[in-house]
From TrEMBL:
Belongs to the GMC oxidoreductase family. The lineage of its organism: Bacteria, Bacillati, Bacillota, Bacilli, Bacillales. Residues 428-551 form the Glucose-methanol-choline oxidoreductase C-terminal domain. This is GMC family oxidoreductase. InterPro entries: FAD/NAD-bd_sf (IPR036188), GMC_OxRdtase_N (IPR000172), GMC_OxRtase_C (IPR007867).
Length: 569
């Protein structure tokens, strides 16, 4: 029988960026917060010997344990969905800091276009430009409304960057200057400027200088060691939740984190949540944590799953188009090209967000009328530090094993450059999340089922952006350029991106989404679901800056709700 614990003001499910920001803001306002984290405690002190590619990058030391919980996947409704037995296409975070601990640090604002994507597309290209199978909707807020929260999050992180010449208006500069412009980045800059494009240094959470944020937390300067993605930072030089926000919440004395605490249900009575039920994953004990406010602050897939299990909201039905919970699942496409050179480069050095990029083919910065797709991609050359196990660049006609493969891998390891894009993803009626009817996790709870395949929109965008990337490499004097092959069907292996969005989308009205623009659930007034799940579409960027901004917006809403209750919009 579950043990009922004393009631608190706020309980968060997950202690990463969103849970950490909610805790920092709400405790500062005097609220008592409990954070339930199903993973372990960890921090900078645990990463002293982190430069182990096999342990962290190949065997996923910091990721979700799939032996306890995974997802099932299929391309379409005719297929049998099967469990993902080993992490592949995307990497689910677990433990203090969540995926925010092992991110690269690329911190882009979405474009103003993203927030009004339906209105702008309909006006410029006509209604139903993509066809009736695509789901276009404006967000529940516009760029001007979210901009102050972007500014606050970037100052929490100390982001190092410079103004995007084709981006939205900024109320202030980045708090620290851009990272070092290496010879490789200068090569990209020179080439793209000759082509008439507008390159700029990538906004980075790997900091160019030491920084103290508004929570009085110190973030150190990046050492350019090349171990960012999939690794915790041993120097405390990457803005992560456990460095930037969580210590501030703990200092208030109003915040408690419980580790190994896996939430399996949100408890409700009427149109309100009463708390959550969770399991201690070590002892097997079961607890009920009552709270005045419940915040789902886990990875977007887990937020959606908890709402589905708890029967909160209306499940999306692809046959009828009715319902919103699980709808608008979007991923991201990765177009690009590789250039082969005779000269050697120091590609083994770098940092997670060390890069030069451009947005000339992102959002609606170019005419789509005759292209058959909308949106685009941020195109970049990054110098993230290529590790030897995971990076074996060879020509496309080289065997994937054997003597020739080994020879080419060694030869090309420091003689190739890649220019790639983060391609936007538009919601489609057949791409959605639901509960699997057959498979369950270690706690007896149904697994989340991912239904996803690339669409014609994705394929056209991928082809277009890959060609543009190839053109840039030609301008950069590559001896040979190979453009990535056109998309076929999506596969859950190999790794592609952890930029999954949708499933609990934000909307202007209850009929069109799951949460309002304070991330407050339309059907359950003291329940908030914050994260990339609230995005109606995915942009041509990393989601973290927008997730952080929405977490600040959500915190503001929770504090308002704690004072007056009711709907906030």
């Amino acid at each position: 029988m579950a043990k009922t614990l004393p009631k608190v003001d706020v309980v968060t499910v997950g202690v990463g960026w969103t849970g950490g920001i909610v805790a920092a803001e709400c405790t500062k306002a005097g609220l008592k917060v409990v954070g339930l984290e199903r993973g372990k405690e960890r921090g900078t002190k645990n990463f002293a010997n982190v430069h182990d590619e096999y342990r962290y990058a190949i065997r996923y030391e910091l990721m979700q344990d799939l032996s306890k919980e995974t997802v099932t996947f299929r391309n379409n409704r005719k297929q049998q969905a099967l469990p993902m037995r080993q992490l592949g296409s995307f990497l689910l975070g677990e433990g203090l800091g969540g995926a925010g601990t092992h991110w690269n640090g690329q911190t882009f604002r979405f474009l103003p276009y993203d927030f009004k994507i339906k209105s702008i597309t309909d006006k410029k290209y006509g209604k139903n430009f993509l066809g009736s199978d695509y789901i276009l909707q404006d967000w529940g807020m516009d760029y001007d409304e979210i901009e102050p929260y972007y500014d606050r999050f970037e100052k929490i992180c100390g982001i190092s960057g410079e103004k995007n010449p084709l981006g939205g208006k900024r109320s202030d500069d980045y708090p620290t200057k851009p990272m070092k412009k290496t010879p490789l980045l200068k090569k990209f800059e020179t080439a793209t400027k000759k082509m008439g494009y507008h390159p700029y240094m990538m906004p980075s959470a790997n900091l160019s200088a030491p920084y103290k944020n508004q929570y009085d937390q110190n973030i150190n300067a990046c050492q350019y060691c090349g171990f960012c993605e999939r690794f915790g930072c041993e120097y405390g030089a990457k803005a992560t939740p456990e460095v930037s926000v969580i210590p501030a919440a703990l200092k208030t004395g109003k915040y408690e984190i419980r580790f190994n605490s896996n939430v399996v249900e949100v408890l409700t009575k009427g149109n309100k949540a009463t708390g959550v039920r969770y399991m201690d994953s070590v002892t097997g004990e079961e607890y009920i944590q009552p709270a005045d406010v419940v915040v789902l602050s886990a990875f977007m897939m887990n937020n959606a799953k908890l709402l589905m299990i708890s029967k909160i909201g209306t499940m999306y039905d692809p046959s009828t188009g009715r319902g919103t919970l699980g709808r608008n699942y979007c991923y991201q496409i990765m177009p690009g090209a590789t250039g082969f050179y005779d000269e050697q480069f120091n590609t083994f050095m770098g940092a997670g967000a060390l890069g030069e990029c451009l947005d000339d083919f992102n959002g609606d910065n170019f005419d789509h009328a005759k292209l058959g797709f909308i949106h685009g991609a941020n195109i970049a050359l990054t110098q993230i530090g290529l590790r030897p196990i995971g990076n074996n660049p060879t020509h496309s006609d080289t065997p994937t094993w054997g003597a020739e493969f080994k020879k080419e891998s060694i030869e090309n390891y420091t003689r190739t450059l890649s220019v790639g894009g983060q391609g936007a993803s538009i919601a489609h009626k057949e791409n959605y999340l639901t509960l699997d009817p057959k498979y369950k996790d270690a706690y007896g709870v149904p697994l989340l089922q991912v239904n996803y395949n690339f669409t014609d929109q994705d394929r056209k965008l991928h082809h277009f952006i890959s060609k543009k990337c190839g053109d840039i490499l030609k301008q950069m004097d590559a001896k040979k350029v190979e453009v990535r092959a056109d998309l076929t069907d999506y596969s859950i292996v190999p790794y592609q991106s952890t930029h999954n969005t949708g499933g609990t989308v934000m909307s202007k009205t209850p009929e069109d989404g799951v949460v309002n623009n304070y991330l407050q659930h339309w059907d359950c007034e003291n329940l908030f679901a914050v994260g990339a799940g609230s995005f109606p579409n995915n942009s041509g960027y990393n989601p973290t800056d927008t997730v952080g901004a929405l977490a600040l917006r959500c915190s503001e809403g929770i504090i308002k709700y704690s004072k007056k209750g009711g709907s906030l919009v």
